[in-house]
Write a structure and sequence with these properties.
Helices cover 15% and strands 31% of the residues. With 317 residues, the protein is an alpha+beta fold. The longest helix has 15 residues, at 162-176.
């Protein structure tokens, strides 16, 4: 049984779990690495924050892939298949993760494959229970494609070949009137449910707890050693995590928001943290911020940009 699968995203769920429009998202900003071989599980158990042995054909997990200092190189969604594991991650970090994971293969019977051209990742919103879709966070179903429930609002990722995806997408559009959604909207919904995807500008900058990976059930504190484990465990047991993840909003503007931009206290001009990731949709720029929590929830925040753009927290992890 997976550790701590409590839904910590209830504070920012949609008022109605099925309130999202029925949409198909051909682009999600995510790519896929397949890890195969007899030692695939052993390799991943020694590198990722989640407990690989807890995964099954019906349960995936989010995880962090850390460096030796406990800083997250990339967040991953780990899905177990019949003969291998799928690592779903931001497209911007695929080459980096492949290169760094291959350093740990050595003589192990494990192979890493970039499956970008073979396996496609489809985003779906509004896939109601009539499709027999999984309902629990990170649960896996087959309808008939591999389907993973994302936290919070009623959204799923579907994995399949190009032909399988095209056939299923055609069915959704013709029979159930699903519309097409944009990448910006999908990323906006990811941020709204505090899924901590980020690009290379934020790689190796934060420990997993700062990204809320523990709140999403993606850190095992009992499975044993993995790269960065000492720092992650020490931060947990000694209560030394001084930053946390927040969902924030600011008006959409032509200048946009830069990932990694500093966030300041507008009164003291003190740096309070940074923008992890952001997406603009429907006139609103929504962002995930990694902010100091030493003196309670931060207020009166602005971005350290040319416009000193005000940014307001709307929810925290």
């Amino acid at each position: 049984m997976l550790e701590d699968r409590t839904d910590h995203t209830s504070a920012f769920r949609e008022p109605n779990a099925f309130a999202l429009s029925r949409k198909v998202f051909a682009s999600t900003g995510l790519n896929l690495i397949e890890v195969s071989g007899q030692d695939a599980a052993k390799l991943l158990q020694g590198q990722l924050t989640c407990n690989i042995n807890d995964l099954s054909a019906s349960q995936a997990s989010i995880a962090g892939f850390c460096n030796a200092k406990g800083r997250v190189i990339s967040t991953l969604l780990v899905v177990k298949s019949l003969a291998s594991f799928y690592l779903i991650l931001p497209a911007d970090l695929l080459d980096t993760v492949l290169k760094k994971l291959r350093m740990y293969v050595l003589r192990a019977d494990a192979k890493l494959h970039d499956q970008t051209g073979n396996m496609h990742i489809l985003g779906i919103s509004g896939l109601s229970p009539e499709f027999d879709a999984p309902t629990d966070n990170f649960a896996i179903g087959q309808i008939p494609l591999t389907t993973v429930k994302l936290p919070g609002a009623w959204r799923h990722l579907l994995l399949g070949t190009s032909d399988q995806i095209n056939e299923f997408t055609g069915l959704l559009r013709s029979r159930y009137a699903f519309e097409s959604g944009s990448l910006d909207e999908w990323r906006y919904q990811d941020i709204s449910t505090a899924l901590p995807w980020f690009d290379i500008s934020q790689s190796e900058q934060h420990i997993p707890q700062m990204l809320g990976i523990d709140q999403l059930g993606g850190i095992s504190f009992s499975k044993g050693c993995y790269t960065g484990q000492e720092i992650v465990a020490r931060s947990h047991y000694l209560g030394k995590v001084k930053r946390a993840l927040f969902i924030a909003e600011c008006p959409q503007s032509s200048n946009g928001v830069i990932n990694g931009c500093k966030v300041l206290d507008s009164i003291s001009q003190q740096s309070m943290g940074c923008v992890l990731t952001n997406a603009a949709w429907a006139g609103i720029n929504r962002a995930l911020l990694v902010l100091q929590i030493v003196d309670g929830l931060p207020k009166n925040l602005i971005l350290d940009d040319d416009y000193r753009t005000p940014i307001a927290i709307i929810s925290d992890q």
